[in-house]
Write a structure and sequence with these properties.
This protein has helices at about 15-30, 35-50, 55-60, 70-80, 80-95, 100-115, 145-160, 220-225, 230-235, 255-260, 280, 295-305, 340-370, 380-415, 420-450, 460-470, 485-490, 495-510, 515-540, 545-565, 575-580, 585-590, 595, 600-615, 620-635, 640; strands at about 65, 95-100, 120-125, 135-140, 175-185, 185-195, 205-210, 240, 245-250. It has about 650 residues and is α+β, with helices and mostly antiparallel strands. The strands form two sheets. The chain has a seven-stranded mixed sheet with strand order 3-4-7-6-5-9-8, sandwiched between helices. A two-stranded parallel ribbon has the order 1-2. About 30% of the residues are buried.
Length: about 650
């Protein structure tokens, strides 16, 4: 048996050489032991331990093995680049952790992503800086076959026993598939979700099938996702393991209107689910009956709009506000209620009404301060200016009363005076008249232009400080709107009391005369928010609902709408109409709260894709970048990588005082 003659010691040799020597020794051990190499190796260790501690022998041997799937899941979950992954592997080596090589990781990635991807620069419509429209090429990345991608997600979930029919709430022969989209972070994402999983509306179950960076107007949507219309129709007839697909549409209301060709929420016939007009929506549901929309009705209305209405937007209301053809043929009865945007829109409307009535109280407080010499330096600059203008207005009005009195006195003197003094009295009277007219113009100007911003008064500031204490920070650059978590926090009973009752203590301290008015405002909106909170808790659920629970929700919605109509005196908004007319009908039909079918998962993917884009290195072409983003996203939502992610334990709340 001839042994090789080494030129370097193992300490100086490369890792490849060391590995070759180990393989050579393994082969020799197999020959010497006649196939019993494990027993031979065990005896070698016994001999070695007589002169060397076992810890010294084993300290360089990897104690943990991380395979290629686990390493890929780790890289995907951390959102790191391949270069950062190499650095991580070097750290692992220093700790004795053996991990899969990059080649195997890339092979695993390619097997998950596959070749079901298309990337092209397509002509999209943009708005230039001057507001004019222009057409430019922009990247668009999408699946080649939507059905293949859906089946892949089904197969992977089935292999891991993730599929469920929710205790029979989904018929055993049906597979529920939600198809939707949303624009965020500068790009539009077309997405789908499987309904037959434990958490169908989670972002890990939201798969982007189309991505483009442009506005989500009708033309761009038609360009990017219109090609999937036939594929979706084919999905309706496709079977998987003897089960057929039922397809739903989801997204925010603006997106849904574009996809079905409606002019939007501002149109006369604004509702996607029925033909209610803006005027009919003001009437309680129990006092009217409205026809429901169908795909056939949409097609007929669009045909009449383009022929009889000549395609003019001014004629849209004559044809139920259908101005474009529907991009997908998903039945109207299977268009999901956008519950998240119902929350955001309705709550913002109610809160703005609350702020407006509080602003009236702030103005009265300002007028009260203007009557005296109260120090207002502790309040906002805007409120100080408001009080100062009110004081000037009050002084001007007092001077006007004095001028009118002097004018009347001069008129009386002119009637009884001699001709010698009459001319001087007339001259003085003319000067008074001019002064009075000038002051009247100044007073009118101050009355018309003296306004107090909704956010500037002492009561408004108090409300804002209370919101901060409960963790609600309104979006300053988005019309001071709220996000979903804000609404959830604000609609808790304890927080409703904090927000609506905080004005009482402030009024009692600075202007007790207005306490009765403040109590009326506080009580009205406390009641309104509580009624809406009960509705929100009912329809936003993501689990199945029993008939008694649906009936309770319907009663709560009726109470809310009745109170609103009796006390708030403003129009019923489109989202309030959807809540009143279609929310419970949807839940009765499909058996789940709107959180099951809603758009929350779709809204969550924007941040993840932005993070992916941030970590992409080495690519300059926008099309290649978009393609890399899509591939990395598919890895993030693959059940194969998700199964390896550690479970995030809920944070323990500190209950100590």
């Amino acid at each position: 048996m001839k042994s090789p003659q080494p030129r370097k010691s193992t300490d100086d040799a490369s890792r490849t050489t060391i590995r070759s020597r180990s393989r050579y020794l393994e082969e020799q051990r197999k020959l010497v032991s006649k196939g019993k190499e494990k027993q031979q190796q065990r005896d070698e260790l016994k001999v070695a331990t007589k002169t060397t501690k076992i810890e010294d022998l084993l300290h360089r041997i990897p104690k943990i093995q991380v395979n290629n799937e686990e390493m890929l899941a780790l890289k995907t979950d951390l959102g790191i680049s391949w270069n950062s992954n190499r650095k991580l592997k070097r750290w692992f080596n220093t700790w004795g952790v053996r991990s899969a090589g990059e080649t195997r990781m890339r092979m695993t990635r390619d097997s998950i992503v596959g070749h079901n991807i298309m990337a092209n620069n397509l002509p999209f419509l943009f708005n230039d800086e001057s507001g004019h429209k222009k057409v430019e090429l922009a990247p668009c990345v999408c699946v080649d076959s939507l059905a293949d991608k859906v089946i892949q997600q089904l197969e992977e979930n089935n292999e891991l026993n993730n599929l469920t029919w929710h205790q029979g709430k989904i018929p055993s022969q049906e597979l529920w598939l939600k198809i939707g989209g949303d624009k965020g972070g500068g790009s539009f994402k077309g997405m789908f979700q499987l309904g037959n999983v434990k958490r169908p509306n989670s972002k890990t179950n939201t798969v982007v099938y189309c991505l483009f960076e442009s506005n989500d107007n009708f033309r761009n949507l038609k360009t990017a996702v219109g090609r999937f219309k036939e594929q979706i129709n084919n999905l309706k007839t496709l079977t998987w393991k003897d089960k057929h697909f039922r397809i739903f549409a989801f997204g925010d209301y603006e997106y849904l209107c574009k996809m079905y060709g409606l002019s939007g929420a501002a149109g006369r016939h604004f509702c996607l689910w029925c033909l209610a007009s803006q005027e009919e929506a003001q009437i309680p549901k129990s006092n009217r009956k409205i026809a429901q929309r169908t795909l056939e009705q949409l097609r007929a209305d669009h045909h009449q709009f383009t022929t009889l209405g000549a395609g003019k937007l001014s004629n849209a209301k004559k044809y139920n506000n259908v101005i474009n053809e529907a991009i997908f043929d998903i039945e109207i009865s299977q268009v999901c209620i956008p519950s998240l945007h119902l929350d955001l829109g309705i709550f913002l409307r109610f809160f703005n009404m609350f702020e407006n009535e509080v602003n009236l109280l702030d103005r009265e407080i300002g007028a009260h301060f203007a009557q005296g010499n109260s120090n207002v330096t502790n309040y906002s600059q805007d409120f100080q200016q408001y009080v100062e203008i009110k004081r000037k207005l009050r002084e001007t009005e007092i001077k006007l009363v004095d001028l009118k009195s002097r004018e009347e006195h001069l008129t009386h003197l002119q009637m009884s005076s001699e001709a010698v003094t009459l001319s001087s009295l007339q001259a003085e009277s003319e000067n008074l008249r001019k002064d009075k007219e000038k002051m009247e113009i100044e007073a009118k100007d101050m009355r018309e232009n003296t306004t107090l911003k909704v956010t500037a008064g002492p009561l408004a500031k108090k409300i804002d400080s209370v919101l901060q204490t409960i963790g609600v920070h309104r979006q300053a650059f988005h019309g001071r709107s709220f996000v979903g978590n804000h609404v959830h926090k604000c609609l808790q009973d304890i927080n409703i009391n904090k927000v609506t009752e905080c004005i009482l203590g402030e009024v009692e301290m600075i202007c007790p005369q207005l306490l009765a008015e403040a109590r009326a405002v506080s009580f009205k909106f406390n009641t309104l928010f509580r009624l809406f909170a009960k509705c929100h808790a009912g329809y936003s659920r993501a689990d199945s609902m029993e008939e008694s629970e649906i009936n309770e929700l319907e009663t709560n919605i009726t109470k809310l709408m009745s109170f609103y109509r009796q006390n708030c005196f403003t129009r019923i908004s489109p989202k309030m109409h959807i809540l009143e007319d279609h929310t419970t009908e949807w839940i009765k039909t499909w058996g789940f709260g709107c959180g099951f079918h809603g758009e929350q998962g779709g809204e969550s993917v924007h941040a993840d894709l932005n993070n992916i884009k941030f970590n992409i290195r080495g690519l300059k072409d926008n099309l290649e970048i978009a393609k890399a983003i899509m591939k990395e996203h598919w890895l993030q939502v693959s059940p194969i990588t998700i199964k390896h992610r550690p479970i995030k334990r809920p944070r323990l709340m500190n209950t100590t005082e």
